[in-house]
Amino acid sequence: GAEAIEIGVLVYQFIEDTLSVRGRIGTNLESSSQLGGVSATERTLGGNQVQLLTWGVGPSFQQPLSNTVTGSLSYDVSGVDFLNAPTGSTPVTASNALLQKAQTSLSNEIAGAPFEWQLTGSYQDQSYPNSVTSSKRANGEATGQYHLTRTFSLLVAGGYDWVDEPTLTKSPSAPYGTAGFLWQPSERASLRLEAGYRNRRPNYSGKLT
Fold this sequence. Notes:
Distance between the termini: 32 Å
Structural class: mainly beta
Order of helices and strands: EEHEEEEEEEEE
Strand content: over 45%
Number of strands: 11
Number of helices: 1
Largest sheet: 11 strands, antiparallel
Shape: globular
């Protein structure tokens, strides 16, 4: 089982609607028996507990670059630290984790424009300070949405996924492309269907709300 406690989330705006920093911290008390199907009494004695500390902090920046284009940039570093449990004496065998994420984007900001576009780039690095293992991912993508009517739009997307994952025998790094449509008959109802090629194989997705 797990008991989560969110200690706090803080957002401070250095420049209103332009530059801000967000920080968060929380703690989990994880209980997982290594003895298999033991009784509930044995599993709750506190000898199989681990205290987790989760935290994160990062700035975000957004700025209009012209009358029609807006740019944004964000960075976030977060971590999970395994601490000693408040009760019991189970040794902590898991490794602490550190995750760094950076993202940038450009998009058009024209109210009522028939065509909307966005360019995004992202990078993610997950490492474990107690080992040499790390996982890295990056993505660059261009998306477009053309409004045929007030409720129906055509969608298109293309980009490249780069993955450096030591646990994979074959890297899924490759270009991709998808196309589809979005139907929104009302504010509370929508249907989104897309098809294309990603991760070196045909890819299909749908969402109904």
